[in-house]
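Lab channel / #folding
Pinned by the channel admin:
"Please post every new chain as: sequence first, then the structure tokens as a reply. Keep commentary short and put observations after the output so the thread stays searchable."

First post following the new format, from NK:
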Amino acid sequence: MSDGCLPDGTPQSLYFPDGHQHTGKFKGMAQILKEHGFANVDKLKAQVLFNQPDFMDVSSLLKILCLSRGF
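Reply from TO:
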């Protein structure tokens, strides 16, 4: 999945950066929502993330590959 965008327009990596204990691994929805400014993320439903503007129009890599090959 490609990077997202924070509410202020700053790019948001969905993967932990170099030097982090989990470098290169997906951050997970809870961490991504925290970075978006949500509190009590452990009690929120996944739909909250999928309703964020930068996630609504993101195409999966599979979809992009299929479209590029005419499917």
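NK: The first strand starts at residue 4 and ends at 5.
TO: also worth noting, The helical segments are 29-35, 47-50, 53-56, 61-68.
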